[in-house]
Write a structure and sequence with these properties.
The chain is an alpha/beta fold and 454 residues long. It has 3 domains: 44 residues, no CATH class; 245 residues, Aspartate Aminotransferase, domain 2 (3-Layer(aba) Sandwich), CATH 3.40.640.10; 147 residues, Aspartate Aminotransferase, domain 1. It contains 14 helices and 16 strands.
Length: 454
């Protein structure tokens, strides 16, 4: 009796493991400590081979399994995969503009509280949906929004809050949810940099109305490109799916028909009775699905997530201990006792008055093989995307203005954000570095500080 297709599939996967061991013994660039990066093994390669042999290509059985497993991991009702964390953010904000939300839908000109010390694609969906970003300053040491300053930013047009948990360190979710409840605001947790962080035991991304995640290679787990939106609200889940899947009203998965049992018996909009539900569109949407290859990798990575998170926490703890004696010249991170961070990176700030600048320290680190990154956009309001365009915005309790009219006086209204732009960067604490790397980072920093007489 000849070999079956399943026999050959298993042989291919066995060969894939052998190939991996020969071809990919080390993902690290020699002589350099990376600031972030993926950790892959033969499991991910076998998962990709498995998905390839299905020849399904688009989101299929692996995606169904991934969405279910991811929702179960976080303890939420619904998870929807998408092609990036940035797309997850776009889907979450756009979902809140849906007519299906009635009086609670966001409309053009409505305001959304956010911060300028952020990655651009937390703020971009606000602008792209014709909403007005309202920028509030942040705290130092946590680099999250200063919740005490949010009250002054509220107006009758304020309808939502959209904020990232910075570098895996969560903002005060008790105070945040109380604020949103008192003002009847939507809350979106951008958890792209905070997968696995917990507040009083609950995962980041699961306490607001929606949470977003990224699976880019720098993140806590990866699909290469990829992201997800999670929610406990069944209505929001349907809306997010519609916007992700071309805007169609139908919720059939790819390759499936008539899930609702009413494919040819509905009357929607001005369409004729019985118009095919698969070609009925209730939103202005996109196609932001992932492929089954990505979902297969995601499943393999999800099984390793707890180990990755533990390594990130351990790396950050080592750096915190090793650099503690430099507190007179460096500001090191802190977090609430209610938060268990999932460090995306280890933030460091150069204190005002130190005998060196952030720029000098970063250049020294880079020249000695230590990777660094800025705290994303620094002050987003200074970026060309804002100064070269006409974006309506507000700063704190200030008036509505155009981004092209921003002045030094406006920037000064966000003093901690300005400080971050000038003084803050972050170091690697991800699963692709270890304690020896952190000790080398500490050695290089101490060598530099001693050389400056500090």
């Amino acid at each position: 009796m000849g070999r079956t297709a399943e026999d050959i599939r298993n042989e291919i996967k066995k060969l894939a493991v052998e190939y991996y061991e020969l071809a990919h013994p080390d993902h690290r660039r020699p002589g350099r400590i990376p600031v972030s990066g993926k950790v892959l093994g033969p499991e991910e390669l076998c998962a990709m081979m498995d998905a390839s042999l299905d020849m399904w290509l688009t989101a299929g059985r692996f995606n169904v399994e991934f969405e279910k497993a991811f929702a179960e991991k976080l303890g939420v009702g619904h998870a929807l995969s998408t092609n990036s964390g940035s797309s997850a953010n776009l889907l979450a904000v756009t979902a809140l503009t849906s007519p299906k939300l009635g009086d609670r839908r966001l409309k053009r000109g409505d305001e959304v509280i956010t911060v300028a010390a952020a990655f651009p694609t937390t703020v971009n969906p606000i602008i792209q949906n014709g909403l007005v970003p309202v920028f509030v300053d942040v705290e130092l040491k946590t680099f999250n929004i200063d919740i005490s300053r949010m009250e002054e930013a509220v107006t009758p047009k304020t309808k939502a809050v959209f904020l990232a948990h910075t570098l895996g360190n969560m903002y005060d979710m008790d105070a945040m949810m109380d604020f949103c409840r008192r003002h009847d605001l939507w809350m979106i947790e951008d958890s792209c940099d905070a997968l696995g962080a917990r507040w009083n035991g609950r995962y980041a991304g699961t306490m607001g109305h929606m949470g977003t995640f990224s699976f880019y290679p720098a993140h806590h787990m990866t699909m290469g490109e990829g992201g997800a939106v999670v929610t406990n609200d069944a209505r929001l889940y349907r809306i997010i799916m519609s916007v992700r899947d071309w805007g169609r009203d139908c919720w059939c998965r790819p390759g499936r028909d008539n899930t609702c049992g009413k494919r040819f018996s509905l009357k929607l909009g001005n369409l004729p009775f019985g118009y095919d539900h698969k070609y009925t569109y209730s939103h202005v949407g996109y196609n932001l699905k992932i492929t089954d290859w990505q979902a297969a990798i995601g499943l393999a990575q999800l099984g390793k997530l707890d180990g990755f998170l533990e390594k990130r926490r351990r790396n950050a703890a080592v750096l915190l201990e090793l650099l503690a004696d430099l507190d007179d010249v460096l500001i090191l991170p802190s977090h609430s006792e209610h938060c268990s961070p999932s460090w995306f990176g280890f933030p460091v700030s150069v204190r005002p008055g130190a005998p060196f600048s952030k720029q000098e320290l970063v250049e020294h680190l880079e020249s000695h093989g230590v990777g660094t990154r800025q705290l994303f956009a620094g002050n987003l309001l200074r970026q060309p995307m804002m100064t070269d365009s006409d974006v309506p915005l507000r700063i704190g309790s200030g008036p509505l203005m155009s981004s092209c009219q921003l002045s030094e006086e406006n920037y000064a209204a966000l003093p901690n954000t300005e400080f971050i732009m000038e003084g803050t960067f972050w170091l690697g604490s991800a699963q692709n570095v270890d304690e020896n790397d952190e000790r080398e980072i500490s050695r290089v920093i101490h060598e530099f500080v001693r050389g400056r007489g500090a």
